[in-house]
Amino acid sequence: MDNIKKILIVSDLHGQKFTLEILKKYLEKNKLDGVFCCGDLCNRHDPNAYKFAKDFIDLIKNIHKLPLLLVHGNQEPQDVLELFNQENISVHLNEKNIFGYKVVGVGFGEELPEDKKYFKDKIVLTHEPPRKKLIDEMIKMKSINNTPILHFAGHLHKYSIIYKIGSKTQIVLVPTLQSHRAVLLTLPKQEVKFIHI
């Protein structure tokens, strides 16, 4: 059972200090193996955005000694994007390995990679979810090539939905942590569930 890994996935904290308290309490009470974030960690025009991002990173990486991977949303200012790169936690067009899985991402408003196999058999983090029309079309297909095994996306705040695409892919809309909700991923089973924290 030692090979079972639990990863908490959060999104859209928007610099709200109470979300760090929620996260801190959850991390103290639960054994986790990592944290992913789907963007909008802070707000662009908030003078405390950098400090909030730094506190978030320190809580996960330094205090709880957990791996952290993330993508940027549409609210992070430039100095926070630079912090993500300095801390080596951004998966925006930057593949990382965790527990034998390849994790990649695309930040908000960014172009998708031209390589059609870029996401194949990987865990994908994005801020924006795929459009509903595209998801509906994918669900109708019997076989889809080059798809990720899991795709986590934020941005929509109140939605918490799991779309199953064929037998392999799950697209998960991650709710905002401001509503005390997150996602818990269990590997290697690839079990995804919404949790209240």
UniProtKB/TrEMBL annotation:
<dbReference type="InterPro" id="IPR004843">
    <property type="entry name" value="Calcineurin-like_PHP"/>
</dbReference>
<feature type="domain" description="Calcineurin-like phosphoesterase">
    <location>
        <begin position="6"/>
        <end position="159"/>
    </location>
</feature>
<dbReference type="InterPro" id="IPR029052">
    <property type="entry name" value="Metallo-depent_PP-like"/>
</dbReference>
<dbReference type="GO" id="GO:0016787">
    <property type="term" value="F:hydrolase activity"/>
</dbReference>
<protein>
    <recommendedName>
        <fullName>Calcineurin-like phosphoesterase domain-containing protein</fullName>
    </recommendedName>
</protein>
<dbReference type="Pfam" id="PF00149">
    <property type="entry name" value="Metallophos"/>
</dbReference>
